[in-house]
Specification:
The chain is mainly alpha-helical. It is 60% helix and 3% strand. The chain has 4 helices and 2 strands, in the order αβααβα. The chain has helices spanning 2-41, 61-72, 83-95, 117-130; strands at 50-51, 114-115. A two-stranded antiparallel ribbon has the order 1-2. α1 runs antiparallel to α3 (83-95). The radius of gyration is 19 Å and the shape is globular.
Length: 131
């Protein structure tokens, strides 16, 4: 009887671990597609340059994602025709949560180089593929 309980617990735990991974992968794929969609609707001329984290070390991923989320709030739509699509994609990016048990990095968003909005989004997409 004891062995049966241990087997059931082991089976339950392993099945939970297997279902968590595909959900996380799907979430990051959706986020990657959202960033790609935003690249076509973002204004890239006569706009503020954004602090763009590139190649953050493992301990700084949470800081880099936070910098990207703050930067997306400064993005502007290319024109009024894409405004609704732009607004929807920004909402998706604002709701994104990144859970990383690592420590907070010492570098701030301002320590990263400033780049154009399209380069900013390309770096964000690259970071999502690394996560």
């Amino acid at each position: 009887m004891e062995r049966m309980i241990i087997f059931c617990m082991l089976f339950f735990c392993s099945s939970m671990a297997l279902t968590a991974a595909p959900y996380k992968i799907a979430k990051y794929k959706q986020l990657f597609k959202t960033i790609e969609r935003l690249q076509t609707t973002v204004k890239d001329k006569d706009v503020e340059l954004l602090h763009t984290p590139e190649n953050p070390v493992d301990g700084c991923l949470l800081t880099a994602v936070t910098c990207f989320q703050k930067g997306t709030l400064k993005l502007q739509p290319k024109n009024s025709q894409v405004n609704s699509t732009f607004t929807q994609t920004i909402k998706v990016l604002k709701r994104f949560t990144f859970s990383n048990p690592g420590k907070q990095c010492e570098s701030s968003c301002e320590s990263y180089e400033k780049k154009t909005p399209k380069e900013f989004l390309k770096s964000f997409a690259k970071l999502i593929t690394q996560v």
